[in-house]
Amino acid sequence: MTDRICITGVGVISPVGIGKDEFLLSLKNGQPGITEIKAFDTHFFRSKKAGMVQNYHPKDFIPAGKIRRIDRASQFAIAASKLALADARFPVTQENSSRVGVVLGSGFCGLSSSEAFHKSQVLKDFLDLNPMLFPNTVPNAASSHVSIELGIRGVNCTLVQSFCTAEAAILFASDQIRNGRADVILTGGVDELSEFLFRGFSDLRLLATDQGHGERSCPYDRMRNGLVLGEGSGVLVIETEEHARSRGAKVLGYILGYSLVGGSSKNDGSENIGRSLRLTLRGKEGMEIDTISGAGNSSKILDALEAQGIKKAFPSQYSRIPVSSIKSMTGEAIASGGMRMVANVLSMGYGFIPPTINYLFPDPSCDLRYVTHQKLDQEVRTVLHMGISPGECYSSILMGREWNR
């Protein structure tokens, strides 16, 4: 059992719910979390919507005196980590803290702090410079704040791997557990949506616009025309099955296989997707896949590539495997894989596949068996999770409700 990596707790701060129970209810009901942006002025942008975290109160998770010193992304990570540890019923103590780690994926976290800090420098000539902003400008601020706030003294690492960022963190964390460098690791992803980030994606013309059917995240739909950005944090508690059993923990699922591969933009992206899936399933080719947690994000290119890659990996099965993307509800973020992995755990635990909402018009380039409009109730023993960043990296993680080699 020493090499069996299991998940014993989950925590989530998302646009569709704070905590596991709210998140679960929204996934079951296909509740959209994408709304008009109120946090900053979108007057000069063609896009107006995002998956913003709502009804989040930092004082519920962080002492009031510390809140001002901790950036929004780090607050999300601390909250999700505390919820995950509570779900795992694992207290961090002085005795075990050096064997507990934090490995998070974080894309552009720190941008808001950087923007505010440099505005003070440039616009106010240092007269109103807030020095507390500076420590939060680095991408690893979230994982560091989690360690400090929770008293964790073990492995601490932040990874960035484009839109496979949370997946890369979970893979690295699993390797750390397997190599005996920690007993328990908090891993997943965190993102904060800022005006600076929104403008970057907007200027690259990557965001969805209203072309007669509303500005929406509609993965796999023929009328999709771009991303809708989101934010939040999803954190897993992982450990070996042996360690989990020794402390009487409930196992929520297992990580049965994973891969992360690169690929030049000159190569066929679908072949790289197929290669990632085959590597993840090596030695388990006969295993039945109950559902695929799709990376579809309403991008014309990515959604079609995903369908092609799945067909190459499952040439005789692809039409039977249900595929779903919760990004239709939460939006897209660099490390959204953390929230998606939490959704996968809940899918296995509660026997349902979340819907891909906003799906109206079938697309011949996306011709898989998509779960749309409402959840599909069925037993979910295995989930194949996908992460895709076209022309850069491709990842997949095989999850199982039970250990099955």
In short:
The protein is of the alpha/beta class. It is 31% helix and 20% strand. It contains twelve helices and 16 strands.
Structural topology:
Blueprint: E1 5-14, E2 17-18, H1 20-29, E3 35-36, E4 49-50, H2 64-67, H3 72-88, E5 100-106, H4 111-123, H5 141-150, E6 156-159, H6 165-178, E7 184-191, H7 195-203, E8 232-240, H8 241-246, E9 253-262, H9 269-280, E10 291-293, H10 300-313, E11 322-324, H11 327-330, H12 337-350, E12 352-353, E13 369-370, E14 376-377, E15 382-389, E16 393-400
Parallel strand pairs: 5-6, 5-7, 10-11, 10-15, 11-13
Antiparallel strand pairs: 1-2, 1-8, 1-9, 3-4, 7-8, 9-16, 12-14, 15-16
**Terminal residue distance:** 12 Å
Order of helix and strand elements from N to C terminus: EEHEEHHEHHEHEHEHEHEHEHHEEEEE
Can you count the helices? 12
The CATH architecture of the largest domain comes to: 3-Layer(aba) Sandwich
> Which overall shape is indicated by the principal axes computed on the Cα atoms?
globular
CATH class of the largest domain, named Alpha Beta
Q: What is the helix fraction of residues, given as a range?
A: 25-40%
Number of strands: 16
Roughly how many Å is the radius of gyration? 20 Å
Task: Give the strand content.
Answer: 15-25%
Q: Briefly note the CATH topology name of the largest domain.
A: Peroxisomal Thiolase, Chain A, domain 1
- Return the average pLDDT rounded to an integer: 93
Task: Kindly report the name of the CATH homologous superfamily of the largest domain.
Answer: Thiolase/Chalcone synthase
Q: Which segments are poorly predicted (pLDDT under 50) over 5 or more consecutive residues? A: none
> Which structural class fits the helix and strand makeup?
alpha/beta
Number of domains: 2
Largest sheet: 12 strands, mixed
